[in-house]
Specification:
- The protein is of the alpha/beta class.
- The chain has one domain: Rossmann fold (3-Layer(aba) Sandwich), CATH 3.40.50.
- Helices cover 42% and strands 20% of the residues.
- Strands 3-2-1-4-5-7-6 form a 7-stranded mixed beta sheet, sandwiched between helices.
- Helix 7 (136-146) runs parallel beside helix 9 (185-196).
- It starts with a helix and ends in a 6-residue tail after the last strand.
- The relative contact order is 0.14.
Length: 221
């Protein structure tokens, strides 16, 4: 199956999953999408800088980031048209439509120039999206290619410090939403960072419930 076919199929799946959930998404996800606010606080874009979120969903993270860093311009990409309807409405209510631009696209293969009129971004972040994206490794590659600064990722870890029963229950529940924690998330990002000649910093949060990864700099570690 070709990439366009995969994109169309995944777009339809995400629209069906979130057609109704998007209305309560932010209210429910705040209890278990842990580490998002810490990641946002560490973005620190330069004055007048540009920030892209891959898999922006309802726009919650973009609004928070735009308020925290008022001198930057923000961009959001999502494959779900349904989620973008909610995102645009939320951004308009927040009075941030002039600083946040949105587009529908595939995080595994996107053309920033055609979507946003930009070749690259000072910061790119991905919050709990790689665990939902088929071929998520290509999203990492695309982010690194479009980054002129750093790439920030937070997603489900392997719950390595938590009881086995918790891990089983969590994964069973996440599967209902087509979410699968990526066992090789940290190692794959680190490997891609080395190839790109960039540093990679890994932090395990909440006993491995979530992983926070930052790629940026000149020398790999």
């Amino acid at each position: 199956m070709s990439t366009p076919e995969l994109s169309a199929g995944h777009s339809g799946l995400m629209d069906s999953v979130y057609r109704h959930q998007r209305h309560i998404y932010d209210l429910t996800r705040k209890y278990y999408l842990l580490g998002r606010d810490r990641m946002i606080s560490e973005l620190a874009p330069p004055k007048g800088g540009t920030v892209l979120e891959l898999g922006c969903g309802t726009g919650r993270n973009l609004i928070l980031a735009a308020r925290r860093f008022p001198d930057a311009h923000f961009y959001g990409l999502d494959i779900s048209a349904e989620m973008l309807v909610t995102a645009r409405a939320s951004i308009a209510r927040a009075g941030l439509s002039d600083r946040i631009s949105l587009a529908q696209g595939d995080a595994t293969s996107f053309d920033a120039a055609s979507l946003f009129g930009r070749a690259g971004f000072d910061r790119i972040f991905v919050s709990y999206s790689l665990s939902m994206i088929p071929g998520w490794e290509r999203s990492v590659s695309a982010a690194l290619a479009a980054s002129t600064g750093s790439v920030h990722v937070v997603d489900f870890g392997q719950q390595e410090g938590l009881p086995g029963w918790f891990r089983k229950l969590l994964r069973r529940w996440l599967a209902k939403f087509h979410v699968a924690p990526r066992e090789t998330l940290a190692s794959d990002i680190a490997a891609q960072a080395r190839v790109a000649g960039k540093s990679c910093r890994f932090t395990s949060l909440y006993r491995g419930y979530a992983w926070l990864i930052v790629v940026g700099g000149a020398k790999p570690i």
